[in-house]
């Protein structure tokens, strides 16, 4: 099944647009695991088991594994999610971008080694740097467009033929690059106006939206700006606010509660109503 199909099923099955980010930082683990990078899999497994029912996807960020030489634990984690929660997509957040021959290796790493269902990529080097990912036709390729960090504006808002650069990325990614309908875009929750602009440009294309929770993005503004007519179309990511909802022995229960509350807060605004 393709990434887009699995995602559509997960949106409906779990009644959720919440993507849970897996950014394990041993320094923030609860006391029994604290500082121990050998416990990354165990920590993430507890979070996954506690929150999967409230999620439409999981998004491990590769840096949090690679920094601790924990790539084997990342492989184990993705395999675990696929076995225990079949059909729940896993997006490898790697933000790759390089010449075609190297991109082929990165695509192999994401989709064959890690068995991710989708990967994030940087469009800065153009179409030939993205094409090798698209060759994996059942996989998702999620292109950085208007990122959630303040510094993203330095380049993404640069005027290019009368339009900010992020809009050119949205246009290329949704039209000439999207030959097989497998592309999505990253647009930060910290920029709801830009989410709305991108949504109008790209139809129902999935938007990966980080920036709620620890980065302070507004859930109501995000959902209203990004929802499709069907009340779908978004993977709204929260990582730290869920992973570290408690640093005590109740960390998994606290993550479960934070995930449920975030899923429900998002759902309040999925469909237009007289109140929203
Ligand atoms: O524009 C972007 C693109 C990616 N990210 C990633 O999302 C999570 C956000 O984590 P929080 O703890 O919910 O802030 C993290 O993995 C980033 O690398 C992003 O924040 N913004």
Automatic annotation (TrEMBL):
The active site is at 95 (proton donor). Its EC number is 4.1.1.23. One of its GO terms (molecular function) is orotidine-5'-phosphate decarboxylase activity. Gene3D superfamilies: Aldolase class I. Pathway: Pyrimidine metabolism; UMP biosynthesis via de novo pathway; UMP from orotate: step 2/2. InterPro entries: Aldolase_TIM (IPR013785), OMPdecase_AS (IPR018089), OMPdecase_type-2 (IPR011995), OMPdeCOase_dom (IPR001754), RibuloseP-bd_barrel (IPR011060). It is an enzyme of class 4 (lyase). Keywords: Decarboxylase, Lyase, Pyrimidine biosynthesis. Transmembrane segments: none annotated. It catalyses: orotidine 5'-phosphate + H(+) = UMP + CO2. GO terms for biological process: 'de novo' pyrimidine nucleobase biosynthetic process; 'de novo' UMP biosynthetic process. PROSITE patterns: OMPDECASE. Belongs to the OMP decarboxylase family. Type 2 subfamily. NCBIfam families: pyrF_sub2. This is Orotidine 5'-phosphate decarboxylase. It comes from Mycoavidus cysteinexigens. The gene is pyrF.
